[in-house]
Amino acid sequence: MKRFRAGIVGATGYTGIELLRIIERHPSLELSSVVGSSWAGKPLTSAWPGLSGMLDGVLVERLDPSMLIDTCDVVFLALPHGVSAELVPALVTAGVRIIDLGADFRLKDPAVYERFYGSHPAPEWLDKAIYGLTEWNRAQLPGATLVANPGCYPTATALAAKPLVDAGWSGELLVATCLSGVSGAGRKASPRSLFCEVGESAGPYGIAGSHRHGPEIEQTLGMAVSFTPHLVPMSRGMVATVIAKPSRIPTSQELNECYEAAYRESPAVILRGDTPATRDVRGSARAHVHVCLDRERGVITAVCAIDNLLKGASSQAVQNFNVSVGLDEMMGLPLWPQPV
Predict the structure, then answer these.
(1) Sign of torsion, CA 216 222 225 229?
(2) What is the per-residue pLDDT across 27-57, written as a single tens digit (0 to 9) for each?
(3) CA nearest 29: which of 267, 315, 266?
(4) Shortest CA distance to 300 belongs to which of 109, 125, 163?
(5) Which residue in 42, 65, 85, 206 has a CA-CA distance of 20 to 30 Å to 227?
(6) Residues 197-211 pLDDT 10s
(7) pTM surpassing 0.90?
(8) Catalytic residues
């Protein structure tokens, strides 16, 4: 089996540690470069003491594109917006495959990107990226050299809603209410992520179309979505609840058959006859989806639960890599949840 040398840029963040965990046990990946600028020159165990006894000799390197070109076949970028776009052209041109976990290549319209993130450093590369929502863009991924890994909210929302949209049962406006654990805000300290601020408290933020993931959700689904995210007092996990009011109400059998057909070839999506919870997917690369019909009110409700750090970020990145190089889609990915 061919082995691919893998680099992680942004290895000291939450998605970075999950990438380390997956790559270390992936049969076709070998860790070749670990980059985290604020920890450069220090042992990886300084950033992640829990890795003591496993990766003691690994040093965190400075960000050096030429070093990545020399040592990596694939690089996973877990960086703030605007940084990846400055690196990608040189790396891809040199033959390095890129899986970008940031926002730089998700949106196709540079004007929309600028509205939410600022001026794009490499707008001519937007059309070169494959949007890596694996279940819906699987056919475009083989051979892809630049994959834009979706955001966690768009992943959960789209997995819940896209079968409805494709079947014509979405109505004119989808309403998506999402709950996320605090790790979605990243590892950098901020008032919003302090224990005293989030403990025993839950609330919405980024409402009324102001959240950066809103345009990505609408681009993915191809329609208007009223998206309201909530931060809840747990470390990880995400639930998206999507409500649609179509002009023609399907039967429950039609609805179930629609979702079964949509995800028949998707090993990372589990269809449930009951509503899923974050504990069902904690530590797992799988998404759990449930859909039901409220005939009396003419409403369809679809729910998706994911681990925001895995199917919402790192495991989906490796899932996309697997498909891009012709490996089994779920190779090396954690399937069992950590229910307690």
Answers:
(1) negative
(2) 999 999 999 878 888 888 988 888 898 888 7
(3) 315
(4) 163
(5) 85
(6) 887 888 888 898 888
(7) yes
(8) 152
